[in-house]
Design goal:
- This protein is of the alpha/beta class.
- 42% of the residues lie in helices and 18% in strands.
- The protein has two domains: 224 residues, Aldehyde Dehydrogenase, Chain A, domain 1, CATH 3.40.605.10; 188 residues, Aldehyde Dehydrogenase, Chain A, domain 2 (3-Layer(aba) Sandwich).
- α5 crosses α14 and α9 packs across α10.
């Protein structure tokens, strides 16, 4: 017997009572979630600090505030999002009305990643509950303290047949994936994404996959270098570089590099001080395995900023490596740590080709002031989302659906997009039964064909 069969069945039974279809019920549960989180902020702060020295400020800035924002937005809008929407009716179906009813999918499973353990687990769950589903959440075992804290505050405050946290690693997730869910929302690596999608296919369960990849950052000669360096240094080294949409590498136009490097040195010092190891704004690497992987990626001969590390502290300083080519080992996988390689180019067509020859990235950033060049990049390269003269911040705007494309994922969330990811849009044609046109019925005739052509063409 699957250890999770009962809870999934219990959630299905609860879903079938139709209680979650009541929008007032959903609003009350979202308010409760916000209150439970607010009441336990210090517990959540302590747990994430234990996981990778993430400060209380950053926990609020990059995790809790985003979840609160999603909750507020859903509370404000879910009644209108859930309402049936009338659309035009075509000639052949007149007289009649056509409308779309958003309906919840049922029992949902959200699988979270460790790098933003609260945000990436709870923002999808907010969308699931707002859309009227029940939710099972499986946070990442790598951020164990944060996972424990979420399990405690949620399982103590919510009915398990409505919203429940199940902790665990591969074995537990594998068991969960054997069961039938109505939706699986997964955040994590591309390789595990394939395992999730295969398991979901067995039950024809729809998936949203929020995956990773190497996100390029173009910097052109006509960029405001001071502001560009400030924004991209913040975006790259936030969370110790362990951000799915962090700029993975820089493509610097020939002529801009020396100035950019000088400005990046200044900005690293401004943000993290003389010794980033002592800065409360600099997060540690999540595990010894990731630490080792990252240290091996640093080619000491190519370091131009940083390059320090401390195994006991799982610390790697903000590091910039220069004279990198697409053949270097650091360019073969997503870095997901505080190391920033620079590749120089003088032929934009070559740079575009190099990006397009690789898997479609989750994000792409353009620092420059030439609209023609910007529009060329936006037109020619496919990627999840991104920024012009900005990095990472696009995901803080709930009006922008957040998600990848190709190897970086499928589907999206945040705001209304999240609600839609967890909804089915049921299309209804409702006709009057007073009169009936004989056109569609046999026996067929030339006048019926003529009338059809008139109606349709
Ligand atoms: P991961 O794939 O190792 O783990 C993610 C989740 O999958 C965890 O909950 C884990 O328990 C589970 N899992 C791991 N192996 C599994 C298996 N064999 N079978 C079933 N479940 C399994 O990913 P990670 O290391 O936590 O996250 C890093 C990756 O996630 C990076 O590639 C990053 O870019 C990506 N990411 C993407 C987003 C996004 O929003 N697109 C956000 C954060 C991270």
């Amino acid at each position: 017997m699957n250890p999770y069969a009962k809870i999934v069945q219990d959630q299905l039974d609860f879903f079938n009572t139709n209680k979650t279809k009541d929008t007032n019920f959903r609003i009350s549960q979202l308010k409760k979630l916000k209150k439970v989180m607010k009441d336990n902020e210090s517990l959540l702060d302590e747990a994430i600090y234990k996981d990778f020295k993430k400060s209380s400020f950053e926990n609020y800035e990059t995790e809790l505030s985003l979840v609160y924002h999603e909750i507020n937005l859903a509370i404000k809008n879910l009644k209108s999002w859930s309402r049936r929407k009338y659309v035009a009716t075509n000639m052949a179906n007149m007289p009649g009305k056509s409308y779309i009813i958003p309906e919840p999918l049922g029992v949902t499973l959200t699988i979270g990643a460790w790098n933003y353990p609260y945000q990436l687990a709870l923002a999808p769950v907010v969308a699931a509950l707002a859309a009227g589903n029940t939710a099972i959440l499986k946070p990442s075992e790598l951020s164990l303290n944060s996972s424990n804290a979420m399990a405690k505050i949620i399982n103590e405050n919510f009915d398990a047949n409505y919203f429940h946290v199940i902790e665990g690693a591969v074995e537990e997730t594998t068991n969960l994936l054997k069961l039938k869910f109505d939706k699986i929302f997964y955040t994590g690596s591309t390789n595990v994404g394939k395992i999730i999608m295969k398991a979901a296919a067995e039950h024809l369960t729809p998936v949203t996959l929020e995956l990773g990849g190497k996100s390029p950052c173009f910097v052109f000669n006509d960029a405001n270098i001071k502001v560009s360096a400030q924004r991209l240094i913040w975006a790259k080294f936030l969370n110790g570089g362990q951000t799915c949409v962090a700029p993975d590498f820089i493509l610097a136009e020939k002529g801009v590099k020396a100035k950019l490097i000088e400005e990046m040195k200044i900005q690293i010092k401004n943000i993290y001080g003389d010794d980033p190891m002592n800065s409360d704004a600099f997060v540690r690497i999540i595990s010894p395995r990731h630490y080792k992987r990252l240290v091996e990626l640093i080619d000491k001969n190519k370091v131009i900023i940083g390059g320090d590390n401390n195994e006991k502290e799982l610390y790697i300083s903000p590091t910039v490596v220069d004279n990198i080519t697409f053949d270097d080992s650091i360019m073969q996988e997503e870095i997901f740590g505080p190391i920033l390689p620079i590749i120089e180019f003088d032929d934009l067509s070559w740079a575009i080709k190099m990006v397009k020859d690789r898997p479609k990235p989750l994000a792409l950033y353009i620092f420059g002031s030439n609209n023609k060049t910007t529009n060329r990049l936006l037109h020619e390269i496919s990627f999840g989302g991104g920024g012009v003269n900005e990095a990472v911040m696009h995901l803080a705007n709930s009006n922008l659906p957040f998600g990848g494309v190709g190897d970086s994922g499928m589907g999206s969330y945040h705001g209304k997009a999240g609600f839609d990811s967890f909804s089915h849009h049921k299309s209804i044609l409702s006709r009057s039964a007073i009169i009936e046109m004989p056109v569609k019925y046999p026996p067929y005739s030339n006048w019926k064909r003529g009338l059809l052509e008139k109606l349709i063409e």
